[in-house]
Amino acid sequence: xxxxxxxxxxxxxxxxxxxxxxxxxxxxxxxxxxxxxxxxxxxxxxxxxxxxxxxxxxxxxxxxxxxxxxxxxxxxxxxxxxxxxxxxxxxxxxxxxxxxxxxxxxxxxxxxxxxxxxxxxxxxxxxxxxxxxxxxxxxxxxxxxxxxxxxxxxxxxxxxxxxxxxxxxxxxxxxxxxxxxxxxxxxxxxxxxxxxxxxxxxxxxxxxxxxxxxxxxxxxxxxxxxxxxxxxxxxxxxxxxxxxxxxxxxxxxxxxxxxxxxxxxxxxxxxxxxxxxxxxxxxxxxxxxxxxxxxxxxxxxxxxxxxxxxxxxxxxxxxxxxxxxxxxxxxxxxxxxxxxxxxxxxxxxxxxxxxxxxxxxxxxxxxxxxxxxxxxxxxxxxxxxxxxxxxxxxxxxxxxxxxxxxxxxxxxxxxxxxxxxxxxxxxxxxxxxxxxxxxxxxxxxxxxxxxxxxxxxxxxxxxxxxxxxxxxxxxxxxxxxxxxxxxxxxxxxxxxxxxxxxxxxxxxxxxxxxxxxxxxxxxxxxxxxxxxxxxxxxxxxxxxxxxxxxxxxxxxxxxxxxxxxxxxxxxxxxxxxxxxxxxxxxxxxxxx
Length: 592
Prior knowledge:
Elements: H1 2-7, H2 28-39, H3 42-54, H4 58-86, H5 101-131, E1 149-150, H6 160-163, E2 167-168, H7 169-178, H8 193-211, H9 214-240, H10 245-253, H11 263-277, H12 283-288, H13 297-330, H14 346-355, H15 361-394, H16 400-415, H17 423-467, H18 473-496, H19 505-519, H20 521-532, H21 538-545, H22 557-572, H23 581-591
Parallel strand pairs: 1-2
Helix pairs in contact: 2-9, 2-13, 2-15, 3-11, 3-13, 4-10, 4-11, 4-13, 4-17, 4-18, 5-8, 5-15, 5-16, 5-17, 5-20, 7-14, 8-15, 8-16, 9-13, 9-15, 10-13, 11-17, 11-18, 13-14, 15-16, 17-18, 17-19, 17-23, 20-21
């Protein structure tokens, strides 16, 4: 097809003078590494372990792997394709169907919520990194003021009776020394000054990289994506050698078949899939929008999605190996009773494992928390880039450094609330309502927009034009039928089976308000899109709002002209393609 277009005198890589072109990645590998740093990050190392523990270990792993295959990979590839094809962020991409622009706005709000609590986790990581330079790791031994405590440095604890209902020092260090944890029923409390300073330093690092633009992010990705795997492999080997590790790993890998029928487990699997691959938040679309038009995102999507799955399993084995050791040390039968569950699990299990290193524990602690800080930077860069891209797509005259600076200042100001004693409980609330439910809801509408309104047929043609790749039936069936159906069933099941977060009622009400604020964007922007159409008559306005805008298509003028010729040739051909005939019929009957 490209040969035909070039024969007609259409150049695919020439830009019109004086027309601003979106900033691009320096090299294709920088895009892939940046996506690895973004996707294979906090979602795997921080969020996956405590989500798996809360949902039964092996009982969670099977739904998670099924969801990755049926939902995660198809959406990941779809978002990469669409972002690269149109060079637009998660809001502007809905030029394909302006009536659905509220989906992008709602996803941006969810991303903003995630931004406010991802950086506090980064701040806690920095606190541990600095503490690792002490002559002895401060969490390795019990403080005299802690009751019922076992030194984390101990590999075994012989007195079974005395060790019942006791906690390791790594857990108490996190809850009492770092977070000064207190239940929300006693109030949120005042943010800790040391953690707030770490939060400020974390935001400064993120802001400095983002102010320099997407090329700066790409250059940093070489280190952000590769270095963490060296430390992960070292910790994996060490975790497997701990006494009792096998029990924990078996708990992680052995499914509980009864829990497979629990809707909440499947919802958590979907949510974790979204967090793990960072899909349906807008970050992948934003990153892909900075790609060159012909970059092979099919290859990138497969590599990153498989790497993400591999990383989650390895991280799960590390954490549950440590939990097995803790169960052995404290003589607890149930793995889920070893430590308090929740967002702080990573800062209890990992430090405890490091404290048991016989040689150079401080060195490994520095390496581990440096690694966690690095993957946290990678995750945060993707989160904030999505928000910056959405703003600059709407207001292209705004300079990047100004938008990055304002977003960073606002993000820091809101993030400080999580540094308070009740901050982690509040994090649970916003994670549940502002991220999980919002993401799952808008994932469904995103799939409807891409697969049904815009059409699987057209997506297949766009891929053929852009990458010269024929889309096989697996992707077509997933995009058009299977993935939206699975998301719908899980969303309905989760809403029916909803259980409020274990916090005072008013905080759950605040959570629902955040959810409603995000979801209401869909009808509001739909109304705006309808009445913005210049067609006469209400019905014509509605139909027009479902169709792509005149500017829709590749960013480059000549490439877009070639694309329009390509579409005309397909429409005039008697054997255009055989892509999803059922969806084609529905699409034409409703929207044409």
